[in-house]
Amino acid sequence: MKVSDFDYYLPEELIAQTPLEKRDTSRLLVLDKETGNVEHKHFYDIIDYLEKGDTLVLNDTKVLPARLIGTKEETNAAIEILLLKNIKDDEWECLVKPARRIKIGTVVSFGNGELKAECTKIFDEGIRHFKLIYKGILLEILEKLGTMPLPPYIHEQLKDQNRYQTVYAKEVGSAAAPTAGLHFTKELLDKIEKKGINIAYITLHVGLGTFRPVSVENIEDHEMHSEFYTMSKEVAKTLNETRKNGKRIISVGTTSTRTIETIMNLYNEFKPCSGWTNIFIYPGYKFKGIDALITNFHLPKSTLVMLVSTLAGRENILNAYKIAVDEKYRFFSFGDAMFIK
Question: Chain-wide mean pLDDT for the chain?
């Protein structure tokens, strides 16, 4: 199967540059995965598609303000560092621009030297390991010196940094937002709960792969990045009961999906656990955990288009995306949503 099989035409003006004023007023394309039929709604209508006893699974990861602009100590050259993953103690995997300027031992300074980063290891594709040097609490320093790591296709400045967080974000550790969840408001979640729908929170820290295109033509040759996930005892119990009762598990986002499917592949049931997953879901894969999916519109030829094509069928997805383009839906992180039922 070729990466080009998952390409589609997208006019650049449909890439959403800013979030809507009210999160749940975004549009919602509802796709029936069995028939391919499409409906046009608004996100607040999602409640009409959820039934009592269903469980909605959301990823409560919180994005680090992990994009830092500093200067190389020896030359004063501008350096941008994106913190991706805490390896151990204060050593971090980072994406660096321009990477060619960074050698082992290079020190980059941020602010008035409140934070320094010394390069300890060099890898391909702009990846470096840095030892962070600071006094105090790192998160507080990042909130002062860092900005949200918006995807490269967003060129506008974000006025309110919290708009790149879900309203339920809790566990700090992501390099990017689980964007399907950006559409929910606290009021909508309250209404959903009052209808008798379970809301369960898992954690998957979104990592480097969000920024990496698929660079091979045969999708079987693509290597997925690893991301850390965790599921609690309470959530595992809720999901097992949902399944036992014949109700649906509805995943919010591809990150929740990857966590659910990873755990089901390991145990054939839901268990309290944590670990690293590099699961790659593409056509041919059989879903074991989720029944439906709330998601955004994804980049052409991306692993995420492959994932939704696995659930709904490639032709159904490409047709739905064509309709979304024709109807001028907003695409990607700050764009509109899709419900695959």
Answer: 95
